[in-house]
Each structure stands twice: as structure tokens, then as C-alpha cells.
Amino acid sequence: MFKATIDADTLKSSIEALSVLVDEARFKISPEGFTVRAVDPANVAMVSFELGSNAFDEFAADDCEIGLDLSKISDIFSVAGKDNKVSMELDEMSQKMSLHLGGLSYTLALLDPSTIRAEPRIPQLELPAEVVLNGKDLQRAVKAAEKISDHMLLGVEDDAFYMEAEGDTDRVRLDIPRDQLIDLRAGDARSLFSLDYLSDIVKPASKSNEVTVEIGKDFPVKIGFTIANGVGKIGYLLAPRIESD
Amino acid sequence: MFKATIDADTLKSSIEALSVLVDEARFKISPEGFTVRAVDPANVAMVSFELGSNAFDEFAADDCEIGLDLSKISDIFSVAGKDNKVSMELDEMSQKMSLHLGGLSYTLALLDPSTIRAEPRIPQLELPAEVVLNGKDLQRAVKAAEKISDHMLLGVEDDAFYMEAEGDTDRVRLDIPRDQLIDLRAGDARSLFSLDYLSDIVKPASKSNEVTVEIGKDFPVKIGFTIANGVGKIGYLLAPRIESD
Amino acid sequence: MFKATIDADTLKSSIEALSVLVDEARFKISPEGFTVRAVDPANVAMVSFELGSNAFDEFAADDCEIGLDLSKISDIFSVAGKDNKVSMELDEMSQKMSLHLGGLSYTLALLDPSTIRAEPRIPQLELPAEVVLNGKDLQRAVKAAEKISDHMLLGVEDDAFYMEAEGDTDRVRLDIPRDQLIDLRAGDARSLFSLDYLSDIVKPASKSNEVTVEIGKDFPVKIGFTIANGVGKIGYLLAPRIESD
């Protein structure tokens, strides 16, 4: 059993955050809310997503797992106006979900969860440095780097967070000192990442005023932020690239 | 003889409404105004258009018929600013029309009306159900349906107007009860239409607060609305598709 | 030696004005400021550009010449916000330029000026007619002409400036009488130009309230305007096409 009502905008942000890595996802539903863990087809990045039942106006659910085609849900929201509520109800017999949104009623066939790649195990990493900053700053550096290179360094140095990209002849760097960051736990950190992934990930992150970036030395980066006033949590884990120099 | 001045915006809306079905049109001009009747190349939809002489700031005409390339006129208006007046004058000798618009003077060669498909006979249909609603509601349902299918049902049931589309696995439906419609004459009505045509037709219709939709049982739909404060009338007639089930 | 700080917007406008004709340019730097003279690859149009040292917040330079890839600079500014200052510093040893802009630091490799086409000699032309008008008016006529033809006449007749384009069957003309111009020095002037070039040139010109157009009879046209409150000057010289009639 699953029946819920939520701000269309919150659900839309959630779907967008997942869509940057996967097209289909298994949603684990329990009385406590939703969780999704997914890994991109190339095994380079993972996303974990939680949306507590208190993010919903109405929420009633037993434990169950459903498979959703994220692009179909995005299509539905592309027609929705602002300030809409969406209500959802699962019909377990027919394996369909009904959605009501701005007067429109949708009946969507669910995907068989067993046909969707299994949930990845999210590795427990203790990363030495942690930076908290505005998502816009992160996005600005990534956009600048894309003009020059296809990968980007993230690191901590001299009590500042830096992002740097180097092309064949040119270089761009953004240093953000501690006093311009929301928070900084300095540590030995410098890792290189693919801009293909980073630019997808910073799109949803750029809407958050407070993005947490955890980095190490040639280790994966963790990029996390909340949605729906902290009730929803989105976290990405992106594998590093090897620096050749 | 034909000489007239009109709001550029009114003429632009008129041309757009015709352009959804045809590229070239025969305009019948008389002292009472303009009329156009045209059928799309595939014979699936017709448009009828009337613009009374009182829609014009200035209008002087004898009976005549001219052929216009609608895309050329659209090009001209794409350069025009808002709040412009356009004045037109026919030169019968050279078969050219001059247009003055925002300081620019155009001289356009007319098309020989005999090279444009003849006016269709618009069938007189008595359709059992009639719905009057905001064009935006019509467009919203059509946009939602396009994501799922290439055809759409329009019908009346239980004192409500409904639009429904069904894809291979999914379904979307919009029910608008009588109290959310401007007017409803209930009757036995349920017909299926091509979304290719419907989505073109609802584009100009969506700008009108009051669109009249007349439907029957496996019969063509009539979609009508006015422009220029009621002085211009646009009506579409779209043939139904056969429901296979 | 070269070190300077300037409004990002002023530098951006300058680069855009050059970019309509060339991808790479030689900048002559002196204690008085910047100058660039360049000719397009097809030898049809020239651009001359001057930006005085007083356009800068800070400016210190010896005589030198640097080669810049304009598209790289445009990329950098595409990331910049409004109201930014950009500071530049030349490193002659490494032949690199560093730019600081909105917190970002760029290090750009310079091009070897000798690999960039030499500065053209700008011919000294005494053109009989001169028109001063708003850049928007010029752009409007060019946009209208593009719909109809690939070349356009500019001329002066009966105390008015006119622009005219003629397609296979259609014609568009804009006449601007003296009282709607900022200034007019009438003279024998009527020349035909390629709209490919004119439409590129009017893009930056359209942002200026006061564009000077000098024309003759089958002679090149000079189109000039200022930026940065008159401290920067941009001038184009476009060769005429032969009228075949």
C-alpha cells in the first residue's frame, strides 16, 4: 500500500537529482518515506536519495519497492504549473501508479524492479577535508572549467578550497578562502574528476545555498545537499580520475 | 480595389491561425471584410476565418480574391514591434500588395488564386455536445497527452467534459466538470483525434479565454474562437480517427 | 609590460565587435591604450578598434603586440556576471596572460602575432554622404531585408536615408527622413552590400544610440560607433557588391 500527497516542486527536484545519473530507479518505500540508491551505467558515480514521510502533506505506506521510469515522471512535471500538489496512489494488483496533478490524472505502468540494476553498496568513506559552500559557486567554477578542459581538480590548500582545470595551453582556477566559505574542515585533499559528471551533478546542487563537498587525496568526492527544508537528502559519490603528470 | 489599416497584432493572430493548416491561402475580400476557407493538404482538417471590416481602422474594398503566401507575411510580422499598425494596399495591375509597417514598406507579389487549392465546402454538422472553456485548459490536456500518445479522445460524460489519451502502458485524463466550464451542452459525444492536428490547433486557441468545442460520437470536432474583440472568427473542423479496440 | 583593470562589460563589447569579422586578432598595446585593425578572411570587410587608456580603471603598459584567440576570451566572459571588473596581466617570459574575473583566475597562452594575418592598411576614403542614426533602426532594416534577399542597398535620396532589399518577387524599403535622423550630410550615395556581413556588423552597432554611416556611389560603407562613453571607437569598412541590372 502506498498513498501520498506532496508539493509537485519537491518531487520534481528529487526526480531531477536522480535523473542526472540514471533513467530508471528502484524506489524503496516504507512508513518512514522514500529511499533510492543508484549507480550510473558506467559505474563512475552513485546517488543516494532520501525523502522522509514528513516531507509529504499526506503519507501512508507499507514496505514495498517500485520501479519508475524517471523520464516519464519528468514529462508529467513539465506540463505542471508552479504551486501544484501531486497525489500518488499505488495499485499493487495492476502494478500501476496513479498520479493526480493540476486536474490531470495519470496512470503509469511501473517497471519491474528486478529489471533495474540492483542498489549499489555505498562505500563508507572517511574523507579528510570537508567544504560547505553555496551551490552557485561550485557551478560557476565547473562552467568555467568546461570551456578549457574535460576534467577538474578539487582540493584544499592553505586554508582555502580550490577548483582548477588545465587545458592544453590554458588554465582556470577558483580559490575560495575560509572566510568566503560556509564551513571548512581542512585536510590533505586533491583529486581529479570528470567534468561530464561534475557538470551534471552541480545542476541540482546549484539550487542549494549549502552544499557539502568532502574530498581526499585521489579519493572519490562526496557532494551532498538537502531539499524540501532539510527533509530530503541527496548525496552523490563520484570516483576520481587518475592524474597523469 | 483594396486598401486597409489594422492592428499588426490582429493581422498576425489571423495569419497564425491559418498557418497551422496551410502555407498559402485565398483571401476573399469584399466591402464587408475578409474571409478564408482552407483545407489542409491531407484533407483532415479545415479552417474558416472571417474578419469584419469593423476590425480595421480603415477599410475600403471591392469584391476581389487574392492569394497570399502566409509564411512571407509571418516573416514580415516577426520584424514588427508591438503596438504597430499595418496598412495594406492592393495594386491590381501588377498583382502586388504593398504593406507599411513600423516605417518599413513591403511590396509582395501575390499568388495566382487559381494555383491555390479551391475553397472547401464546409459541411453543416449538428453536433450533440458543446463545451465552452478557456483555451489554456484545452492546451494543457493536449500537451499532457502528447507525452503519452499520438491521438486523444474528446468526450462528454456525467455532466463533465473529458480529454483522454492512452499510450502502450500509460494513460492520462483530464475531467472538467460543468462548474469549471464556461458552458456545457451535454450529449452523446466521444471521438478520437490526431494529436498532430490538435496540438497545432490549440496553439492559437490557447490565447482565447473562451473556446467552443462541439463534439459528437465518432464525428468531426468543431473548435471555434474569436479574435479582435469578437470581430474576427476562427473555426476549425477536424476529422475523427477510427477507434480500434 | 602590460597590466590593466577594466569593466568586464566594456572588454566584452570590444571583443564582440571584433569577433564579427575575425577569430584571432593582434592587439597593439601602448601607454595610450589598445588598437586593433583586422580584415576578414575573405577580404570583404575591415574593422578598426581603439580603446584609450582612460577607459581603464588602471592601465600600465609599454609598447608591445599580443595575439589573442577571441573565442577563448568570449568563453571566459560567458561565465562572468554583470558588474564585474576584469584585471589582466601579461607575463612576457611565458607569453601568457593572466585574467582575474569574479574570483576566477585564468592563464591564457597568447598566440604568436606573426601567425596572425598582418594589419591591413585602412584606406582613406572621402565618402560624399554621412548619416547618423540609432543602431536599432539600422538593425531593423537589416533584419527585414534578410527575409527577402541576401544583399541590400544603402543610399541617400531626397534628403532621406534609405535601405532597400529586393528578392525575386518582393521588395522591402525603409526610408528615414532627415528629421528622424540624428544627422544627415546628403550626397550622391547608393551602394549595394552583402547582408551576411551587414547583419553581423549591425549586431554590435545596434547597442549604440548613435551610429555613423558614411556612403558613396558604389563605394565601401563606413559604419562607426563608440563604446565606453566614447573612450572606445569601433569602425567597420565593408566593400560594395556590384549591382547587376
Automatic annotation (TrEMBL), chains A, B, C:
<dbReference type="InterPro" id="IPR022648">
    <property type="entry name" value="Pr_cel_nuc_antig_N"/>
</dbReference>
<keyword id="KW-0235">DNA replication</keyword>
<dbReference type="Pfam" id="PF00705">
    <property type="entry name" value="PCNA_N"/>
</dbReference>
<comment type="similarity">
    <text>Belongs to the PCNA family.</text>
</comment>
<protein>
    <recommendedName>
        <fullName>DNA polymerase sliding clamp</fullName>
    </recommendedName>
</protein>
<dbReference type="GO" id="GO:0003677">
    <property type="term" value="F:DNA binding"/>
</dbReference>
<keyword id="KW-0238">DNA-binding</keyword>
<dbReference type="InterPro" id="IPR000730">
    <property type="entry name" value="Pr_cel_nuc_antig"/>
</dbReference>
<feature type="domain" description="Proliferating cell nuclear antigen PCNA N-terminal">
    <location>
        <begin position="2"/>
        <end position="99"/>
    </location>
</feature>
<dbReference type="InterPro" id="IPR046938">
    <property type="entry name" value="DNA_clamp_sf"/>
</dbReference>
<dbReference type="GO" id="GO:0006272">
    <property type="term" value="P:leading strand elongation"/>
</dbReference>
<comment type="function">
    <text>Sliding clamp subunit. Responsible for tethering the catalytic subunit of DNA polymerase to DNA during high-speed replication.</text>
</comment>
<dbReference type="Pfam" id="PF02747">
    <property type="entry name" value="PCNA_C"/>
</dbReference>
<comment type="function">
    <text>Sliding clamp subunit that acts as a moving platform for DNA processing. Responsible for tethering the catalytic subunit of DNA polymerase and other proteins to DNA during high-speed replication.</text>
</comment>
<feature type="domain" description="Proliferating cell nuclear antigen PCNA C-terminal">
    <location>
        <begin position="122"/>
        <end position="240"/>
    </location>
</feature>
<dbReference type="InterPro" id="IPR022649">
    <property type="entry name" value="Pr_cel_nuc_antig_C"/>
</dbReference>
<dbReference type="GO" id="GO:0006275">
    <property type="term" value="P:regulation of DNA replication"/>
</dbReference>
<comment type="subunit">
    <text>Homotrimer. The subunits circularize to form a toroid; DNA passes through its center. Replication factor C (RFC) is required to load the toroid on the DNA.</text>
</comment>
<dbReference type="GO" id="GO:0030337">
    <property type="term" value="F:DNA polymerase processivity factor activity"/>
</dbReference>
<dbReference type="InterPro" id="IPR022659">
    <property type="entry name" value="Pr_cel_nuc_antig_CS"/>
</dbReference>
